[in-house]
């Protein structure tokens, strides 16, 4: 029982940290929009990674909500960062 409670809390904390990791892209998006373009490869690959993990977690027989919610925001923030890396 203790291990299950520990794992449950660990999943929640890890999900929050992962979400904060992707929210931190906001600074890069801001810089990109103001002409200080960053490298596009890392956010593009992160977006693909988040998409794949979200699909995996959602379509598992027993949905893995911590994995899903940890990666779902990364889809949007990663691809937004990627798209703003270019001087359109």
Description:
This protein has 88 residues and is mostly helical. Helix content is 78%, strand content 0%. The chain has helices at residues 2-23, 25-33, 41-59, 65-83. Helix 1 runs parallel beside helix 4 (65-83) and helix 3 runs antiparallel to helix 4. The model has no long low-confidence stretch (mean pLDDT 93). Keywords: Membrane, Transmembrane, Transmembrane helix. The chain crosses the membrane at residues 6-27, 39-59, 65-86. This is Integral membrane protein.
Short descriptors:
88 residues; mainly alpha; 4 helices; 78% helix; Integral membrane protein
Task: Tell me briefly what this model is.
This protein has 88 residues and is mainly alpha-helical.
Question: How are the secondary structure elements laid out?
Answer:
Layout: H1 2-23, H2 25-33, H3 41-59, H4 65-83
Helix pairs in contact: 1-4, 2-4, 3-4
Protein name: Integral membrane protein
Organism: Limosilactobacillus avistercoris
Keywords: Membrane, Transmembrane, Transmembrane helix
